[in-house]
Amino acid sequence: MEKVLEVNQLSKSYGNILAIKNLSFTVNRGEVYGLLGPNGSGKTTTLAVILDILKANIGNYRWFDQPMDKFTRRRIGSLLETPNFYPYLSLWDNLKIVAKIKDVPEDDINDALGVTNLLKRKYSAYNTLSLGMKQRLAIASVLVGNPEVLVLDEPTNGLDPEGFAEVRNIIQSQANEGKTIILASHILDEVEKVCSHVAILKAGDLIAHGRVGELLATDDMVYIQSDNLDKLEQMLKQADFVKRVLKADKDLAVILEQGNSVAGLNKYCFEKGFILSKILLKKQSLEDQFLQLVK
Ligand code: ATP
Fold it and tell me: 3.40.30.10, 3.40.50.720, 1.10.565.10, 3.30.70.100: which CATH number matches 221-294?
């Protein structure tokens, strides 16, 4: 696997506020890597450091296995804040200015407007766009120059569900083209739907990282009741198809190992002499899990 970004023991403080602490993670080519955390957890600071906008106090990072320089920088498109577009100029003219600033040919502008579904509005003035279109234009400006890595800070912030879905589609289409994408978000749903990998930040600490499917996997919880709950709990704790058993009020809450069914649990209990008077399967939401992680 080719490493695109390697972050080693990065720390950054603002005066006596330690914004990120000893952060290490690696992003490989083709991954959509989410930095997920509540407000103030250090996501923007992390992105600003790896884009060389802020200097870290300790630690280092490498892009494409080399330190950041102007050639490396050109391979990375970034969106940390909404760019200042000219309100009375058309989308086309605004992106021409972006191409000039980036010193890249204008050829990419049509592609960038096409990917972001704005071609039809090419000659409209910027100030006639909806909020969702403005955000898509901001992403289009990142795509001008066709960078192989996209770094996006809260790309769906403030958008309605339709705007959210449109931005999500853009990110997915870019990922399908093999681009590497790093995005910061405080929205669990966004990360779950868009990202292949995630690093979860809490008050500047990296508390967990890995594949989204593994880290944010939803465990189903089965709530059961029977006579003599203590004995049932002891029995289930010995069963190899049971991941966890917890007391939950008058119930036992059971998490099964993957591939096991509620019917199997019921049968097993019956064979061991326990008749279950209640069996209730509840999906544990990602929200619950995320809140547990950052609690
Ligand atoms: P948000 O989603 O609210 O932008 P975030 O996860 O991106 O949050 P950061 O903006 O990186 O978090 O902030 C991390 C910590 O650093 C916070 O405690 C914040 O108050 C502090 N901080 C950020 N920028 C500055 C600054 N320029 N001066 C002082 N403190 C700052």
Answer: 3.30.70.100
